[in-house]
Amino acid sequence: MELDDIDRRIVAALRADGRATYQQIGAQVGLSAPAVKRRVDRLRARGAITGFTALVDPAALGWRTEAYVELFCQGRTSPSTIAAALAKYPEVVDACTVSGEADALIHVMAEDVKHFEQVLERINAERFVVRTKSVLVLSRLLHR
Amino acid sequence: MELDDIDRRIVAALRADGRATYQQIGAQVGLSAPAVKRRVDRLRARGAITGFTALVDPAALGWRTEAYVELFCQGRTSPSTIAAALAKYPEVVDACTVSGEADALIHVMAEDVKHFEQVLERINAERFVVRTKSVLVLSRLLHR
DNA sequence: CCTGAAAGACACTATTT
DNA sequence: AAATAGTGTCTTTCAGG
After folding, report:
1. In terms of domains, do A95 and A72 share one?
2. How would you write the pLDDT of chain B (144 residues) with one tens digit per residue?
3. Nearest residue of A to residue B12, measured between CA atoms
4. Domain count, chain A
5. Is residue B52 part of a domain?
6. The HTH asnC-type domain covers which part of the protein (chains A, B) (predicted)?
7. How far apart are CA A116 and CA B83, in angstroms?
8. How far does B93 lie from chain A, in Å, by closest CA?
9. Do B18 and A53 touch (CB under 8 A)?
10. Are residues B92 and B63 both part of a single domain?
11. What CATH number has the domain bearing residue A26?
12. Is B33 helix (H, G, I), strand (E, B) or coil?
């Protein structure tokens, strides 16, 4: 599962432009288009590249409220239990277990504050959740 | 800046597969390829779609340590000051101002704990930073 | 705002080195 | 493993409804 220098440059090119043609990438890294394709196929097969997506302005889709929520769970709730429960909420964009007092930190995108409140209430009602602590995003400073 | 139902379906298709052809998308939404292309061009021009990118497994690129850091800043530090300072760090993947005690919340990706520690030290040394509070990511539960 | 057609560019496979 | 050549598909522009 080692990436050589050319692989890294191909990945960088595809991160900068996910719709770049193999020819364009090839010109950047000094390879022919088929050679680039083979490497990209291999990177996907190995799981280094997991997919391609469009980057969307959340506001344009009506997602205007964003928050980070710390989850405090009962005794020894397994990560898989938390993951399974959170997967039900499309508003939960991201979730991870963390060090420190909280058991998990989740990233929520909602249409407005009211919508966020409803989602938070439902998450709070999950059996394993003891309490939550939220911070609302005021403005995005940067995003990569 | 209104998106109709077809626009939303095109965006959904491109979020699911950022390299989908206009023909494929057209088949899904009931439009010809040129019609899809014109809508995508318009969505990009309006800033609804900001770009396309490859989704990469951070571990495959050697990014094995991830953390969220709360920033506590001096008196009235402007968001643009914070943004400008953080833009210098490629390890800062995400940053936003938030409600609550902290002034900002940032998402950091580093090669290992040592690397993270170095980045954190440099951020702590920024003139406007009073103190920071970090949580390390233990395991990712989900990601969309 | 869409469809349909045509030209050019690109992807993909097979072959060769 | 990469370059090249050839075939098929897609993108892109343009004309027309």
Report:
1. yes
2. 789 999 999 999 999 999 999 999 999 999 999 999 999 999 999 999 999 999 999 999 999 999 999 999 998 899 999 999 999 999 999 999 999 999 999 999 999 999 999 999 999 999 999 999 999 999 999 998
3. A54
4. 2
5. no
6. 3-64
7. 26
8. 5
9. yes
10. yes
11. 1.10.10.10
12. helix
Residues of chain B with C-beta less than 8 angstroms from the C-beta of A61: 3, 8, 11, 48
Identify whether the C-beta of residue A16 lies closer than 8 Å to the C-beta of residue B56: no
The residue type at B40: V
| B83 shares a domain with B35 | no
- The pair of structure tokens assigned to B74 is 């001096």
Beta-bridge partners for A121: none
Tokens of A121: 């209430």
Q: For residue A90, give its domain range.
A: 58-136
- B140 chain-A contacts, CB cut-off 8 A: 95-96
Residue type, B75: G
* Residue A87 resides in a domain: yes
Q: What whole-number distance in Å separates Cα of residue A15 and Cα of residue B34?
A: 26
Which of B91, B71, B58 has its CA nearest to residue A96? B58
Spatial neighbors of A31 by CB under 8 A, at least 6 apart, are A6, A25, A39
**A 29-58 residues, CB < 7 A, strand C:** 33-34, 37
